[in-house]
Amino acid sequence: MKYESTRGNSPVLSSAEAIKLGIAPDGGLFVPTSPVTFSPEAIDRMSSLSYGQRATFILKEFLTDYTAEELSQCVEAAYGGSKFDSPEVAPIKKLTGDTSILELWHGPTCAFKDMALQILPRFLVKALEKTGEKTHIVILVATSGDTGKAALEGFADVPGTSIVVFFPEQGVSAVQKRQMVTQIGGNVHVVAVRGNFDDAQSGVKQVFGDCALKARFNDRGFNLSSANSINWGRLVPQIVYYFSAYADLVKEGTIKSGEKINFAVPTGNFGNILAGFYARSMGLPIHRLICAANANNVLTDFINTGTYDRNREFLKTLSPSMDILISSNLERLLYLLTDRKAEQINAWMSELKTKGSYTVDAKTRNKVKALFWSGSADDGETLATIKEVWERQNYLLDTHTAVAVNVLEKYRRETGDATYTVVASTASPFKFNGSVAKALLGEETLEGKGEFALLQDLSSYTGWPIPGGLHGLEQRPVLHQKVVNKEQIGDAVQEYLLT
Ligand SMILES: *Cc1c(COP(=O)(O)O)cnc(C)c1O
């Protein structure tokens, strides 16, 4: 399998090269040059496989320049050990007669980013070996929360790599901060930046754009890279859990083999749901993909009208990992739905850059509408959904997953579609315990309580255990204390690498 850019101006490359580069040299995103499809029999056979075997079965079709042994090693290192606290890796739980929850948060950081970031570093290290690259990879990440910790866990002590994560001193929760500053690993650095997320991000972008600095790093054998969600190596592992969920539903007798189901996905950068689109185009019987947004509902408007318009206020919500105005991975969908018209993609993306908006043609709009349905839920609806689902089903949702459950209810009311639906659950409720406790116990009971006390309260109230990744967090030693201004981000990286 080869990879081409959605902008049409980059060489066609192997998967190892595409993963090493992350973003294509022409600014586009890498996509496989030809479709992969599985027969209904092949999909049936997955029911008797473990998660790791299902992963290898799917990955080998896309990463054809990796040997079977290399892929098994990557899969085993990511999903085989004790990093995930569930033997099924991504277990499925029945919510009601027509709905199951796919729990994607059993990894070390309790959010779905682990599904991809546990394996991407393994792909990357092999990609360096395979392409004869001798440099040491330095991953720079600016994070507003979930990605930073997941990247730290994924890259910690991976040979041939280092990682430096910058987080806004004021912009992450107490739990998220504690998760990062207690990170163990000989190759990890965590730095607080004075300011908000934009300050951290613009500071990191400046380092990537500083040619003189990059040359100095290259001279010393370092190669800067990012682990962001447009890397094909992050998208491809996400396809696996769509197949895995289906295989489990067939296995437990909830659906018949070949029966079509829906997926409802809490969406931000469009990476998770795009993996669902890939699964569907590979033959997985999916009827509708339900794209759930919070109050930052750019995607809902796009799916309903064909116009993508980022000219709107950026809202901070209780589902912060979906607070996004530019969903980068949408570019891959548009490329495939226009039958790979790179020229068209270039035109739309340059309009997005200059005007902040673009409108797709009627044919593309209709294709999007036939596959996707989208709605949004505000913070009030999110909290009400957490409370309702706990009271009715005794199941605890985090704020992101609650957005998806709420939007699924809207979908069913509006369309009357009774198709069995799987909701992708993207975070443990304990990761966003402040909001979840508020939904269940009311604002008054939170008065004066810290996030760590709330973890315990929530656990006592629900009888759900605090996940290993968050347990005892308050007692772990702080290993990273550096704080910088955004102008000093480059200096901090230099200090770590060159001295
Ligand atoms: C990243 C994230 C999302 C959004 O996923 P995308 O692939 O960016 O659409 C949703 N929920 C949680 C908890 C996340 O961390």
Walkthrough of the structure:
- Belongs to the threonine synthase family.
- Keywords: Lyase, Pyridoxal phosphate.
- Helices cover 45% and strands 15% of the residues.
- The strands form four sheets. A six-stranded mixed beta sheet has the order 3-4-14-9-10-13, with helices on both faces. The protein has a five-stranded parallel beta sheet with strand order 8-5-6-7-15, sandwiched between helices. Strands 1-2 form a two-stranded antiparallel sheet.
- It has a domain of 220 residues: Rossmann fold, CATH 3.40.50.
- The chain is built from 21 helices and 15 strands.
- With 499 residues, it is an alpha/beta fold.
- Strand 9, helix 12 and strand 10 form a beta-alpha-beta unit.
- The site of pyridoxal-5'-phosphate (PLP) has 17 residues, from helix 12.
Secondary structure category: alpha/beta
Could you tell me the number of beta strands? 15
Rg on CA atoms, Å: 22 Å
The CATH class of one domain turns out to be: Alpha Beta
Distance between the termini: 41 Å
Q: Which word captures the global form?
A: globular
Total helical elements: 21
Percent of residues in beta strands: 5-15%
